[in-house]
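User: Study the chain.
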Amino acid sequence: MLFRSVTAIIAPNIEAVKAYASSHNITYDRIEDLLENPKIYALFEERIAEAQSDMASFEKIKKFRLIKRGFTIESGELTSTLKLRRAVILQNYKSLIDEMYEQPSINTSMV
């Protein structure tokens, strides 16, 4: 039996992330660098844990990745009624999704 943990692709509010970085003296050159920063990852990990506190372990997001833009109609990732087009998302983010299932969880307790 193949067991896959729950994963997520998250498109955060970039301006809010920049403001958090500024107020916590987190430096970066590119948005991608900021979204991959262990301190930003830990912030989202903490927020996700809080939001899932009443969920069973098997229901909880185990791994996630932050992306710099949300899903859009123009990219084909959303329908005109704003429903997800999962096949398009799977195609567009294949390498990111594969990475989440290939690598062990990031341990932010070392940060």
Q: What stands out?
A: The longest helix spans residues 38-51. Residues 7-110 form one domain.
